[in-house]
Amino acid sequence: MKCPYCGYVESKVIDSRPTDEWERIRRRRECLKCEKRFTTYEIIETTPLVVIKKDGSRQGFDSGKLLSGLVRACEKRPVSLAVLEQAVNDIELTLHNSLDKEIPTNKIGELAMEKLREIDEVAYVRFASVYRQFKDIDSFMKELEDLLAARG
Fold this sequence. Notes:
InterPro entries: ATP-cone_dom, NrdR-like_N, RNR_NrdR-like. Belongs to the NrdR family. The protein is an alpha+beta fold. It is built from 5 helices and 6 strands, in the order βββββααβααα. The chain has helices at residues 63-73, 81-97, 105-119, 121-131, 137-151, and strands at 11-18, 24-31, 37-43, 50-52, 58-60, 102-104. The strands form 2 sheets. A 3-stranded antiparallel sheet has the order 1-2-3, with no helix packed on it. Strands 5-4-6 form a 3-stranded mixed sheet. Strand 1 and strand 2 form a beta hairpin. Helix 1 (63-73) crosses helix 4. The N and C termini lie far apart (60 Å).
């Protein structure tokens, strides 16, 4: 680490602790040449997730899009935004923990449906009806029957 005062490249770490958010590490350092102290922050570098769309195109993962889809499914339902944000965080963490860095949209959709099934059944059915693009009432009824069977 280069000293901001004299430019010397060697320093020693005096103190190291996580920040309040636990997302970075704060390091207090001392230059081995001029003996002045300075602070550095260390962050985890993550590789970006790439979403493979149905048409084969690729774009970066956008948690905002996922959140807006979940919010739309939960309109006029007793589900707080905090719960939906936590669901998005859980889905994103699952995606980052998978070995795949290119994720097809259907995997994201399935994870979103799993979370909605736990949160609110009506929101789940709404999301599933759009996501699975039910062609007729029979496919819709099959999804409802599966939901009822899983319930009891």
